[in-house]
Known about the structure:
It is a single chain. The chain is α/β, with parallel strands linked by helices. The chain is built from five helices and six strands; from the N terminus they run H-E-H-E-H-E-H-E-H-E-E. A six-stranded mixed β-sheet has the order 2-5-1-6-3-4. Strand 3, helix 4 and strand 4 (107-110) form a beta-alpha-beta unit. The longest helix is centred in the middle third of the chain and has 12 residues, at 88-99.
Amino acid sequence: MLKNIPAILSPELLKTLCEMGHSDRIIIADGNFPAESMGKNCKVIRADGHGVPELLDAILTLFPLDTYVEKPVNLMQVMPGDTAKTPIWDEYKAIVAKHDERGNNAIGQIERFEFYEQAKTAYAIIATGEKAVYANIMLQKGVV
Length: 144
C-alpha cells in the first residue's frame, strides 16, 4: 500500500504511467472499444468493472498533460448521422478542468477511424467496463 495514490490505480497501471515518457499517449477505452485488436503493439491493461470518469480523475492526479500541444486530451468524435448523445463528455470536461488550468481548451476531438489509427500507436490502452458510447479518451503525457 502507498499513501495518496488513488486505490483504483492498479500496480500495473501505476507502473505503466511511470514508464511513459513525454508525448506518449494512453487511451482510456469504453467497454465497446476493440482494445485487444487495437493494442496488439502496446500494453493493454484491463480495468473491467470501472468507469472511464473514475479512472480519468485518478490518472490525472498523477499524470501531467502535455503543454507543448494544443489538445493533449482527445475524444472520439461522433460519426456523422449518429444520434448518440455524449453526456459523459461533460464529466470529462469537469475532470480535466480540475487537473489542468486549460480546462475545456485542452480537449479536442478526433474522427472515429483516425482515433483507431492513433490508438494503434499508443503506449497503452486501458480497457474499462464503461457502458457510455463514444466514451473513449486519449491523453498525451507532458513533463513533470
